[in-house]
From TrEMBL:
PROSITE patterns: SUI1 (PS50296). The lineage of its organism: Bacteria, Pseudomonadati, Pseudomonadota, Betaproteobacteria, Burkholderiales. Residues 46-112 form the SUI1 domain. Belongs to the SUI1 family. Keywords: Initiation factor, Protein biosynthesis, Translation regulation. The keyword Protein biosynthesis applies. GO terms for biological process: formation of translation preinitiation complex; regulation of translation; translation reinitiation. This is Translation initiation factor SUI1 family protein.
Length: 120
């Protein structure tokens, strides 16, 4: 069975990136939101430091927040700005470059999240 091509417009100078499925701007895409599962987590942010697989460089991980991907991305941006370093959001986990556990816990509690240190 052959599938229909989902090709077409992928970027518009007027609205930016376009969803190839519903042909709407990414910000207004309804098909991605319907397919997303409910965020997993118990509401307690677990902040830990990890160096595995990173050439000895440490990153601070924030796990367990029950937020949707957009809100998690915004929170990740705020935490990276508060720490003055880079990082990313992958698979529901916020990664901030460097050892910033205490600073991130303070920032999360100021924003009303319950945060605790995990690991050593």
């Amino acid at each position: 069975m052959k599938r229909a091509s989902t090709g077409g417009l992928v970027y518009s100078t007027e609205t930016g990136r376009m969803c190839p499925v519903c042909r709407q701007p990414i910000a207004q895409c309804a098909c991605k939101q319907a397919a997303r599962p409910a965020p997993a987590g118990d509401g307690v942010a677990r902040v830990s430091r990890e160096t595995k697989g990173r050439g000895g460089k440490s990153v601070t991980l924030v796990k367990g927040l029950a937020l949707d991907p957009v809100a998690l991305g915004v929170l990740g941006k705020q935490l990276r700005t508060a720490c003055g370093s880079g990082g990313t959001v992958k698979d529901g986990v916020i990664e901030v470059q460097g050892d910033h556990c205490d600073r991130i816990i303070d920032a999360l509690t100021k924003q009303g999240h319950r945060a605790k240190r995990a690991g050593g």
